[in-house]
Amino acid sequence: MNLPNLNEARKRTNNKVNEYQVDYHLPKVFAGKKYFLRTYGCQMNEHDSEEIRKYLELLGYTETKELIDSDIVVLNTCAIRENAHDKVFGYLGRCKHLKNEKPDLIIAIGGCMSQEETVVKEILNNHPYVDIVFGTHNIHELPKLILEKKKSQIVEVYSIEGNIYENIKYSRDSKISAWVNIMYGCDKFCTYCIVPYTRGKQRSRKLESILKEVQELKEAGYQEITLLGQNVNAYGKDLEEKVDFKTLLEETAKTNIPRIRFVTSHPWDFTAEMIEVIAKYDNIMPYVHLPLQSGSNRILKLMGRRYTKEEYIALFNKIKEKVKNVSITTDIIVGFPNESESDFQDTLDVVNKCKFDSAFTFIYSPRVGTPAAKMEDKIPIEEKNKRLQRLNELVNSYSLENNQKWLNKEVPVLVLGVNEKDQTKLYGYTDTMKLVNITGFDEDLIGKIINVKITEAKSFSLDGIVVKEGVLN
Ligand code: SAH
Ligand code: SF4
Ligand code: F3S
Fold this sequence. Notes:
With 473 residues, the chain is an alpha/beta fold. The chain has 13 helices and 21 strands. The chain has helices at residues 6-10, 43-58, 82-101, 117-126, 142-147, 195-199, 207-219, 245-254, 272-280, 297-303, 309-322, 341-354, 381-404; strands at residues 19-21, 34-39, 62-63, 72-77, 106-111, 132-134, 154-156, 164-166, 177-181, 183-184, 203-204, 224-228, 259-263, 287-289, 327-334, 358-363, 410-418, 425-430, 435-439, 449-457, 462-471. The strands form six sheets. A six-stranded parallel beta sheet has the order 3-2-4-5-6-7, with helices on both faces. It has a five-stranded mixed beta barrel with strand order 17-18-19-21-20. Helix 12 (341-354) runs parallel beside helix 13.
């Protein structure tokens, strides 16, 4: 048994990051059996689930979308806010119930919650029916843990700085748009955030390895890739060779893959050269997710974000000025410990100045082990809820205003599939990352970039129709 340890997870050294290859010699012993995989959290977790899915399929399992039909359940969890925990423990209740009926059911928990001491203690004490707990550093060991499964619980979680695994095979969700990890972990240690503890230190993949993966995806027919990292703009800072995100973006653009995206950008590491590259290449999409977190300099300092309100706005304006038609989205936290009404007004002020295309807004949630969780907080939750509501109203009004600018215009859309709610429609994304529901069903358009005329604009999506002769690729 290997339990997570917060003090170990916090450590950062100059130790070299080791690179490993994953062993794919797995026996197909579970042929005929079914797996159910549920993913919580960010894109990083979505992509990790594509790795998990591959291992399960190599062991012979096939996927079921119904929990009740499964022989193994894997929950890939998120620890970012308390409600993420609540959701997982709520769902575990259903898994427990199923296990009462199907005693051979295997229940495995991975992801960021598994990296938390308190969570693993709770599982050990109160959830004995969970068979396997694995962490973010040893996803590749999941098949071994399943094959070794015994009567007692297996907890195999490492609180280490982390390694890099190359040539990972994925069973990808989409054949059109793919995630590409460019770095793992995070060294920023924003005072509210659990990620540097659950994901280890910042480890960038080598430029050649990333480009090789992009090239392979392009050859496999992928139309779009998204470069993934907690702080993509800090890419390369930890590598010996002199390489940065600007170079990576430029080299990726030169592969001529039709669409390139990247998340997440920390304002701190965003350079003028990066903006120039985004502006220069047509296949780098004019879309930047630039988390603000707070508009108050006092709170930004307490958060450890290392930029001011003024610096954020200056960067925002520079991106807007240089990158034609760029859309910029953000993340905002309300109710950080002792955030005053005037601090909150500063946040509203930035929203009024930047008029974001959209914003993910959250109420601050204390995470055990982070510095902010120890800060005294006198603001009642009712007040925080009210602020969130006020913020959302403002944010949504700007989303609508921004979307309305596209009314009656023709925009290029990468069609990803059939609209789940209305099977007579297709859906896809504009280059500016706006969801478009498209009238004019033609299955042949899936995977193509087409011209769509926008007929209606809502806060969270656009409606459009296919423009004749509109296929662009
Ligand atoms: N690496 C990214 C963010 C990853 S987490 C960045 O630095 O921008 C995604 C978002 O969750 C964050 O941007 C933040 O807005 C929110 N978040 C993180 N920790 C939180 C906490 N303790 N409470 C509430 N929201 C949080
Ligand atoms: Fe968390 Fe900050 Fe790292 Fe983003 S940059 S993952 S918010 S510590
Ligand atoms: Fe992502 Fe949640 Fe972990 S946001 S990095 S899955 S804590």
